[in-house]
Structure formats: structure tokens, C-alpha cells
Amino acid sequence: MADRARIWLNTLSESQIRTALFPAPSQEDADRERRRFFYVPTDHGGLTLEQQDPHQRQLAMMLLATGLSREGYVAAAAIVGLENILDLYEDFSIQWDFPRGRDTGRYYLRIFGDPRESATWSWRFGGHHLSINFLVIDGEVAATTPLFLGADPASAPLPGGAHYAPLGGIEDLAFQFAASLDGAQRSQMQLLDRAVGDIVSGNRDRLADGDEMMVTRNLFRGKLEKPELLKLADGIYAEGEQQSGFTKADHRRMAYTVKPKGLSAADLSPDQRQLLQSLVAAASSGIHLDLAPIGPDRLAGMHVAWGGPLDGAPVYFRLQAGTEFLYEYDNTQRKGNHVHSVLRNPVRDFGIDLLKHHYENVAHR
After folding, report:
1. What's one Pfam family here (predicted)?
2. Could you tell me what percentage of the chain is helix, strand and coil, using 3-state DSSP and rounding each to the nearest 5?
3. 141 by DSSP, 3-state: which?
4. DSSP symbol at 344
5. CA-wise closest residue to 189 among 178, 180, 198
6. Mode of pairing for the β-strands spanning 302-307 and 190-192
7. Among 117, 135, 188, 341, which is least packed by CB within 10 angstroms?
8. Among candidates 40, 33, 74, 46, which has minimal Cα distance to 285?
């Protein structure tokens, strides 16, 4: 990973370096930028693919491949390519205050700390529907979350009746699991018969007990000032709220809590546990297995919470094991054809506490 980052940095011009390379991970205010992530079409921070020459773009993708599994890399590349399909679905009309609103070149890479000089550094790759965050401490990968993967459209037709659905396999596994449950188990898992309009954790750098779904306009970098952007963002939020029919009480019901909600893996039959095992493994599969925040065979403390129907979109579900593993999947927008998913480790996202421990130890050496 460090070798790939060094090779990429060595190809950049001075002006590119000023955009691509930021201060090292720390406990200071300067580290706030590293702990920001986005999944909406906004400035994610860093050097865009468009600002790089073809060789540099290839090197950037090679760095991306060091942190992701093969299926994770394929999903990420597919998500980037979906921008062209989404542009078609929107009649090439949505701009989001950019020259092109849906742009495969507007994916950003930024490195925090120079891996050519230090063994403690970080990197972030992100753009619309994609945010990948890695922290390296003393040469070892210490944090791999948040990892956001989205798809709009979630499924698009291909010749011969096939469909292009980068995240569809995860949703299929979730419905297979739901279909295996008896009535009592379904009642325990299904918090509401309607799905919340987005992932509940949003793009917060730290999660707190009781966090509810964020308002769309607050997911962007900085405050949206232009009336046309506010209208667009608020329209997305209003449409989701109208579709879900959510009340304040409903949002509280779906809020993130430190104590997991829903159906416990301890209350499943062996066959059902195997289905859940497959779902947890799929949810974690974007990152290399040895770097994932939880082993694919770990069900201890795992709970499944659900919002929406049990047999089709629009749907929301959450996998949670204590404060160490959280996966959210939401397919509600575009009438159930627009996915947001995120893998998080609430106590180790961005490696904030690990970094604090590292610098405390360094100070005492």
C-alpha cells in the first residue's frame, strides 16, 4: 500500500502535490479534514482523476486496489462507471453546480502524511456514491472504515435481459435471510413496515447514541448557498420523507443506538445463522479479508434490524454487533432503485482512538 502511494506521489507536479498531499494524521484541528467523508456529488477533497494524466490515474487505481478485495475493487469501478448511466436516467440535466453533474472524472484521491517520509499516514478516495478511507500506523493498516458504496440506478437493464446491479447480490442475500424467518422472528427484526429514506449514520465522523437520519442538505461540503442547489437537495429529502411517511417517532425508532436493535443471531436456527453468515460476509467483502473490521465468520452479538417490506424494495436493513460493527443498506430513492450502503466500526472509524494511543506512546518513548 505504501509503495503504491509513494509511486503515485512521485509522479505528481508541485501544483498537484499541493492538492493531493495534506498534513499527517494527528489529534489536532488539522486532522478534521481527514475525518470528513461524503457520498453526495460535492467536493470530496483531493486531486481528481480528471486532474491527472492517464498514467497517474492508473497509479491511483492501483493504490485503491491495495485496500479493496477483488469484488470490492470491481464494485468501486462499477460505481464510478454508473455516473454515465445516471446521467442518461436524468436526461443529462443535473449539474450540481459543476460543468458536468455526473462525472466519472470527479473522484478524488488525497493522502494525509507523506508515506515517503513516515510510516504513519492515511489516504481517502471518494466521489459520488464512493468513499474509501484507510489509516496506516507504524506501517500497519489500523483503520479501514468508513467504507461507503452506493449505486444509482441500483439496477439497469443490459442486452439479453441481464441487469447491471453492482450491489444487488447483497440485497438478494438479505431477502433470502428475511424469507427464512418465522413470524415471531420477523416481528422482532422488522422495526417498521416502511423504510427510512437514507442510511441513518449519514456522513458523521463519530456516531452517538440516538443519531437519526440526516437532512440531505447537510451531507455536502460546506453550506449550500445557491437557491437551485438547496431546491435540489431539499427536494430529494422531501421526496424520501413523503415516500416513507415517517414521523418524528418513526425516525427515533430507526435511530442508531449503541445497544443493537432488532433480531439477535442468538435466536436463529443453524440454517438461518448460515444465511446471516453469508450476508455479514458480503457486507464486509469490499475490503481485503485480513483488513476487514470484523471476521466474516463472527456472529457473536450480531443483530439485524429492518425497515420496509420483507419481500422487495424500498428497503432498509442494518447489521450491528455492539459498537464494533455496523453495516447499513438503504434502497429507497428512485422508487427503490438507488442504493446507499456503508460499513463502519463506530469505535474505530478513521482510527481516531488508535491514533491517540499511538501518539501517547510515542511521547513516552
Report:
1. DUF3500
2. 40, 20, 40
3. strand
4. E
5. 178
6. parallel
7. 117
8. 74
Sorted by sequence, the CB contacts under 8 Å of residue 292 that are 6+ apart come out as 144, 284, 285
C-alpha–C-alpha distance, residues 173 and 285, integer Å: 13
Q: Which residue type does 247 have?
A: T
From the number of C-beta atoms within 10 Å of its C-beta (0-12, 13-18, 19+), residue 25 rates as: buried
Which amino acid is residue 111, in one-letter code? I
For residue 73, the cross-strand partners are none
State the chain's mean pLDDT as an integer.
Answer: 95
Residues 6 or more apart in contact with residue 100 via CB below 8 angstroms: 87, 106
Dump the DSSP string for 170-210.
Answer: HHHHHHHHHHT--HHHHHHHEEESS--SS-SSTT-SS--TT
Q: Provide the pLDDT for residue 296.
A: 57
Bond prior to 314 in cis (omega within 30° of 0): yes
Q: Which residues contact 62 (CB under 8 A, 6 or more apart)?
A: 4, 7, 8
| Sequence ranges of the domains in the chain | 1-145, 156-347
Cis peptide bond prior to 309, omega within 30° of 0: no
Q: Give the mean model confidence (pLDDT) for residues 58-72.
A: 97
How would DSSP label each residue in 38-52?
--SSS--SSEEGGGS
Amino acid at 335: K
- Residue 110: enclosing H or E segment and its boundaries? strand 108-112
Write down how long the chain is: 365
**pLDDT of 357 higher than 90:** no
d(CA 72, CA 140): 20
User: Residue 364 burial by CB count (10 A; 0-12/13-18/19+): exposed, middle or buried?
Assistant: exposed
